[in-house]
Amino acid sequence: MKTLALHLRGLPARHTPLSHRASLSPRSVLAFPQPPPFVAGPAVALRTALGTALATVLRRMLRPPRMELRIDVSPPDTAIEAELDTLHGRLHTPGDAMHACTRLPTLLPDLVFHHREADGEHYVYVEDVARGRLAGYTVFNRLIEVDRRTDRHVRSPHSKYAPAYQGRGLASAVYDWALGRGFCLVSGARQSAGAHALWHALARRHPLRWVALRTKRMHDLGASVAPTRAAELDTRMILLGHGWSAARLRSLGLLHPAAEAANETMRRRA
């Protein structure tokens, strides 16, 4: 035993690089000892570099063309009708969350507007009682792209209305209701052609600006932007609700200078 111990002590100590030692975190990929990294020879490295370059060129060639505000494809009419039928049934099913909706004051004649709130998000369902069907609905979602303080004042609306009720001002009336309550509405990453037109129509009676959503903040881009800037995924429109102005947003630290967004872009490219 003494001979074996002396023999083991005589073995050279194996040094495990710090980058390959086991992590204490159970979720880490290094939670178990890892083999040393594979070191590729010059020929393998060259083939890898050429493959990466070719993949980059192909991605650029196959990348779809950009469109202003990333206009999205509208869902099929049959899918919208089926969803609205299901929601209408829930609206009149006792015990369902939708059954507990409250009625809003009449926003348009011959239609009933139902409202409910869940986890800070607002749902407005428009019912055509005479025809026994749901005309459509709008959801005012919270934005994960902004910080908690900004989240109290902004929502992102998304609407679905049956074809027979489109173009009749229903969504416009619901958006006006939300803006009248003091919410500022921020457009989504993608819009249908109809929603895009709706926002510009609302801009005739509500202040509209462009913002960049970066680092959980809204950065002011002004009252208009170039088409190339509008095509960026983080560029959105914002409609200012009742009592709000760009100056007030800035004074409360909710709207930040565009220069900060530009600096963030430079840091990402670096």
Descriptive terms for the model:
disordered N terminus; 270 residues; ten-stranded mixed beta sheet; single chain; 10 strands; alpha+beta
Write the layout of secondary structure elements.
Elements: H1 2-9, H2 42-62, H3 77-91, E1 102-103, E2 112-118, E3 121-128, E4 133-141, H4 148-151, E5 154-161, H5 170-180, E6 184-186, H6 193-202, E7 208-214, E8 217-222, H7 227-230, E9 235-239, H8 246-251, E10 255-256, H9 258-269
Parallel strand pairs: 5-6, 8-10
Antiparallel strand pairs: 1-2, 2-3, 3-4, 4-5, 6-9, 7-8, 7-9
Compact overview of the structure:
With 270 residues, the chain is an alpha+beta fold. The chain has helices at residues 2-9, 42-62, 77-91, 148-151, 170-180, 193-202, 227-230, 246-251, 258-269, and strands at 102-103, 112-118, 121-128, 133-141, 154-161, 184-186, 208-214, 217-222, 235-239, 255-256.
Describe this structure in words.
This protein is an alpha+beta fold. The protein is 34% helix and 21% strand. The protein has nine helices and ten strands. The protein has helices at 2-9, 42-62, 77-91, 148-151, 170-180, 193-202, 227-230, 246-251, 258-269, and strands spanning 102-103, 112-118, 121-128, 133-141, 154-161, 184-186, 208-214, 217-222, 235-239, 255-256. It has a ten-stranded mixed sheet with strand order 1-2-3-4-5-6-9-7-8-10, sandwiched between helices. 21% of the residues are buried. Residues 1-13, 15-35 and 62-68 have low confidence and may be disordered.
